[in-house]
Amino acid sequence: MANAGVVNATGDAAPDTWRRLVAHMLRSYATPDTPLPDAPPPTALYRAMVRLSRPGTP
Question: In which band, very low, low, confident or very high, does the pLDDT at 42 lie, cut at 50, 70 and 90?
Fold first, then answer.
């Protein structure tokens, strides 16, 4: 459900953001110092937030 929320919220603005969430989830079971994927660029996150603020956005 968390991943579905991330995919829905970021959509096409930052489509690979789900990878970071999954990496965080997997890291909770992994050994220390397991690297995470890079965070999406600020512009992609901004586009995702704008997308969510539009009425009728799924």
Answer: very high
